Amino acid sequence: MIQVSILYDGANVCAVKVTEKIIESGEKEGLPVARVHEYWKEQVSSGLNNNMLVQADNVHPTVEGYRVMAEAVMHVFRA
Predict the structure, then answer these.
(1) Model's pTM, two decimal places?
(2) Comparing 46 with 7, which gets the higher pLDDT?
(3) N or C: which end of the chain has fewer CB within 10 A?
(4) Residue 2: CA atoms inside 13 Å, Cβ hemisphere, count?
(5) Cβ atoms of 33 and 73 closer than 8 Å
C-alpha cells in the first residue's frame, strides 16, 4: 500500500505531479493507494475545519489531521 498526501490547497505543483505518478504506478503494479489528499478534501468539504487539521505552518498535520489521514488509509483496507 502507498499513502498519498499533499497540501489541501494544491499549491505545491510538484507534489501534485508526484502524487499522480504514485497513483499511476500503484495502478500499474496492482497496489492499493491510499488517496489521503482526496479524503482530506472530502472531509473539509463536508464541514471539517482545515485549520484544525494543520499546524500554524500550514504544512504539518495536527493530531486531528493525522486522524483524518489514518481514516483514509483504513478505507483501503475496508475496500
Answers:
(1) 0.74
(2) 46
(3) C
(4) 17
(5) no
